[in-house]
Specification:
This protein has 196 residues and is of the alpha/beta class. The protein has 8 helices and 6 strands, in the order H-E-E-H-H-H-H-H-E-H-E-H-E-E.
Length: 196
């Protein structure tokens, strides 16, 4: 009754544990300002969202926001050190990867030391790999395949590769419905083939 009255007045409603009555749901939040991680279940299970939030709270360093602010402050220095956007993206991916100088899950982050000219630069690698997928379900990809697709600068594929697979590629990756050429270009090129 209360929900109907509120909706009749044009007020958006969130009815706890009654998702069918909700106009919106509220996610569980991990706050490492300015970094925010929202965990939502579309109102299906607030308990699951809370459990995931608790796990993430334990994993994510309390000062992660400082890393985000330091990276924001270093934008111009990043552009100077790596003028090419692809090189800059690879440098950041290497630094923020597991065990990297800026690994978000490590307890310390020194952006200035990482940007120093004496720091080891990100390796400029031109890599071409072929992924042969056994299924058209993206959930069946191996971790290695999923990581390669998510890191690719360009994705070559045939018309038989499902959109659900291609959606796992980086948003700014070039998607080319063609065979991968002998020299596909700089960065990581991934060719996706279906086994069947």
């Amino acid at each position: 009754a209360a929900v109907a009255r509120l909706k009749a007045r044009g007020i958006l409603v969130n009815a706890v544990d009654r998702s069918a009555l909700c106009d919106f749901t509220l996610p569980a939040i991990v706050d490492r300002a300015p970094v925010l991680i929202a965990i939502g279940t579309s109102g299906v299970s607030a308990g699951l969202a809370a459990a995931l939030r608790q796990r993430l709270e334990a994993l994510i360093p309390a000062d992660l926001g400082k890393l985000a602010l330091a990276l924001q402050a270093a934008r111009e220095a990043l552009r100077k050190r790596w003028p090419d956007m692809g090189e800059r993206r690879r440098a950041l991916a290497t630094a923020m990867g597991a065990g990297g100088m800026l690994d978000p899950l490590s307890p310390t982050h020194d952006v200035e030391a990482w940007l120093a000219p004496t720091a080891t630069p990100a390796a400029k690698r031109d890599v071409a790999i072929t992924l042969v997928l056994l299924s058209d379900d993206p959930e069946d990809m191996t971790l290695r395949q999923a990581r390669a697709l998510a890191s690719a600068d360009r994705v070559y594929h045939g018309p038989d590769v499902p959109a659900a697979i291609l959606d796992r590629a980086r948003a700014d990756a070039a998607r080319l419905c063609a065979a991968m050429p002998a020299n596909p270009g700089t960065g990581l090129s991934v060719e996706v083939e279906m086994a069947v």
